[in-house]
Amino acid sequence: MKRDDTAAGGKGRPAGFAGFKGFKGKKAKKEKKEIKGRADGKIMGIAYMVTAVFIAMAVYFGWFIQFESENVIGSPYNARLDRFSDRIVRGRIVSSDGQTLAETIVAADGTETRGCPFGSLFVHAVGYCGLNGRTGLEAQANYYLLSSHVNLLEKVFRELKGVKSPGDQAVATLDADLQRAAADALGSHAGAVIAMEPDTGKILAMVSQPGFDANQVDEMWEALISPDNTSAQLLNRATQGRYPPGSTFKILTALEYMRENPDTWQDFTFHCTGVFQSGGYAIKCFHSEAHGDQNLIQAFANSCNGAFAQIGLSLDAGRFKSLAESVLFNSPLPYSMPYNESSFVMDEGADEWERLQTAIGQGKTQMTPLHNLLLIAAIANGGTLMKPYMIDHVENVGGQTIRKFLPSAYGSLMSASDAAFLAELLKQAVENGTGSALKTDRYTAAGKTGSAEFETGKETHSWFVGYAPADNPAIAICVIAETAGSGGRVAAPVARAVFDAYFAKRQGGGG
Questions:
Q1: By the 8 A CB rule, do 170 and 401 touch?
Q2: Residue 210 maps to which CATH number?
Q3: Local confidence band at 276 (pLDDT 50, 70, 90 cut-offs)
Q4: Which CATH number is 148's domain given?
């Protein structure tokens, strides 16, 4: 009998072949589907990634345009911004009380000269603008000063005539009367005075001496940068000068002691003989004055080195360093112009001498007047530090406000209770201690003096930090007079002169 091979498999194909083919086809389809699925998954992954990158770029560009574009455009390193001066006359910088601090004078032949009516008085705060670059507000406000918001038709008409448009003007937070009072009080001393509103961050005055005439910076440049010039007039001592803080640092020493002894600090007692001795080391009070029996408040008010040296030996060095760094030692400051950081280096491995010196603001600790001001301002503001700033608003030549700068908080440097504790100590230092030069019937004040040793055989640097009124602070100040001696004798009266000018102006309706 003949076998029919086509019965199941088709013509000329063995039985079972069709089933095998069907199986193979299903497998191929499944594999193809899996490959397609994987490919689709990769494509979707790439699509998601591209979409995420696009969104991130859009967010970044939005953030950049809103917050950073003017800083980049206005950077002193942006040479393209200078081209704006081909069409715009650089705008004025004006004080908060309406006095011109810098302006561009245009001669009959079109020659432009940058003039500073106050000469050297504002040279570090407002800065200079010339062949050797820009500093201070001249640099920070560069973009605004080279922008013009005059009427559009007027601008077009001027461009058609080939006449430049007037630039916008920057209205500073600086008060010309306070600036003059600070400089006059500092007199011939090298040093700095810087004052601000503690509840807003507005800088009211910034003096650094010695200075130079901003109108002659280009002519004086070689002399200013000469290695033989030891006066360092280009240095803004208010923001870049670093000094041992002396007894003003006892503010932090007292705070750390209170934190480590929250229930017993009021029981602290010390008998001062004028010299504190420990382990072969001797710490003298100023002029070896014997203060007698002292509690913590009295020791702070009298700036008793012996009492604070003893306190320093009892403190946990690691915690002390943590406190210093929490109030911005070894850290950037919330300030947009050039400055130097303050340094605190004592750690847990410090020896006895370093502990003694650090507790009274000597040793390796270095601090800028700007940082000291920010610390005292935070105490005056209940522990919260406001970001310091020097441009109040920008307006066009007609006086219309183009941009307003508002106060903003940096954050809390300490709790409200810590600030209240220190405020009481600072008040007592003026009422019953070394800050008595600030006592007056016109207002109350709080503060701390300091006399910082820096070189054997030389007179101490004179410090004062404080604020007024004591119970409702409106102005905070830091003063340093180099090699001037006692903080109570020199720096405190400088602060008093600035406070007097400030409150006389307020009571007279001048601001």
A1: no
A2: 3.40.710.10
A3: very high
A4: 3.90.1310.10
At 154 the pLDDT is 74
Query: Do 254 and 224 have their domain in common?
Result: yes
Reading the block at residue 480, the tokens are 């340093």
- Shared domain for 341 and 438, answered yes or no, is yes
Burial 170-207 (b: 16+ CB within 10 A, else e): bbbbbbbbbbbbbbebbeebbbbbbbbbbbbbbbbbbb
Identify the bridge partners of residue 192 per DSSP, sorted by sequence position.
Answer: 208, 480
Amino acid at 108: A
- Helix%, strand%, coil% for the chain, nearest 5: 45, 20, 40
- Distance from C-alpha of 88 to C-alpha of 262, rounded to nearest angstrom: 62
Only one residue has tokens 């709080």, namely: 446
Instruction: Decide if 173 contacts 96 (C-beta within 8 A).
Output: yes
Give the contacts of 282 (CB within 8 A, at least 6 positions apart): 275, 276
CB-based contacts of 154: which residues, under 8 Å, 6+ apart? Answer: 165
Percent of the chain with pLDDT over 90: 74
Examine the pLDDT at 32 and tell me if it is beyond 80: no
Residue whose C-alpha is closest to residue 365's, from 315, 319, 325: 325
Domain-embedded: residue 21: no
In a domain, 467, yes or no: yes
- Looking at the structure, do residues 117 and 138 belong to the same domain, yes or no? yes
pTM of the model: 0.85
Nearest to 408 by CA among 389, 383, 382, 394: 389
Expressed as residue numbers, the domain containing 208 is 178-385+410-507
Q: Can you read off the two tokens belonging to residue 377?
A: 């301002």
What lies within 8 Å, CB to CB, of 434 at 6+ separation is: 247, 301, 302, 303, 449, 486, 487, 488, 492
